[in-house]
Specification:
mainly alpha; 3 helices
Length: 92
Amino acid sequence: MLEQATEVTASLVRKLRKLSNVEEIQDDYETLQTIEGDADRLMVGLLRDLYQGNVDAKEVVILKDIYELLERAIDHCRDAGKVVFQIALKYA
């Protein structure tokens, strides 16, 4: 999902540089929103499984930190996409 989010974000930036159609940028932004929502749902499930499973405490902490970093990275992609979308709307 992180790879998908970064690809869509890069696509948004390319489209903004070319001053592409606002509808195309909006479609990509909505795709980013969907990816971020799916990632949040996946994160909740992974954390639930992590805390309910028979996992060593050290491993729980490490995996939780990794999951949170991945979630934060995807959130930042969404935030960057929002900025691109707002710029596209402003100059449309």
